[in-house]
Amino acid sequence: MDTKPTKRSAERKEKFIQAGLEIFLENGYENTSLTDIIKKSGGSLASIYKFFENKEGLFRAIVERGFDDFRTRIDEKIDLNLPHKLDDFLTKFAMIFFDIICEKKTTLISRVMMSEGAKNDGLLGKEFLDQILSKIDKILIDFFEREDIRVQLNPCISPYVAAKTFAAVVREPYHYNAVLLNEDIMLSEKEREEHVKTRIDMFLHGVKKR
User: Fold this and answer.
1) What is the dihedral of CA 88, 73, 200, 190, to 10 degrees?
2) Which residues of the chain are under the pLDDT cut of 70?
3) Residues 104, 196 within the same domain
4) Is the link from the previous residue into 173 a cis peptide, with omega within 30 of 0?
């Protein structure tokens, strides 16, 4: 079977995704048109409609690619099929998660979701929750539900709440400052490591002096 058309199709789709990401980063979501993306990618409007239906669909594909990249990094650093110590797992997960939070494209995607997510009865927002946030949460939830880990945690706190809380503790205060105040997250590797270390300590032990 000749697979060249399929390969060419995949390559064209990838060009749209890469061009779309670059233009969205430069101009923002509202100020980006499909014409801008076509000029950047060298493709056609018909192809964009074929692959993504519209600008929203292209943006959705970019968001989904973001999770794919995150999952790839997780799989490279953490074998989810093996047992892990609580602190070790949280440290590895948080470093990968926070590195992605610090990326400019994460800020852009989050900003777009805040402005566009509730439109059309929250269609884009719901898909973002289902395709990205829920999948990230599930990695943590599955870990917290392991018998050897769950016995170490407060039984009054569900794995779902623990996962949501941990992600929030790790990403703030930098994420919302970047999204709302247009501040780039400029932290060295050492500063990121210290941030993660402090957040894990807060998550596991609270803020009360011991």
Assistant:
1) 100
2) 1-5, 210
3) yes
4) yes
**Token pair listed for 63:** 């968001």
Strand, coil or helix: 172: coil
Phi-psi region for residue 206, left (φ > 0), alpha (ψ -120 to 50) or beta?
Answer: left
Q: What CATH number did the domain enclosing 181 receive?
A: 1.10.357.10
Q: How many CB atoms lie within 10 A of CB 46?
A: 8
Tell whether 48 and 78 lie within a shared domain. Answer: no
Whole-angstrom distance, CA of residue 48 vs CA of residue 37: 9
**Which pLDDT tens digit goes with each residue over 75-123?**
999 999 899 999 999 999 999 999 999 998 888 888 877 777 777 777 7
In angstroms, the Cα distances linking 194 to 163, 190, 201 are: 21, 6, 11
Q: What is the pTM of this model?
A: 0.81
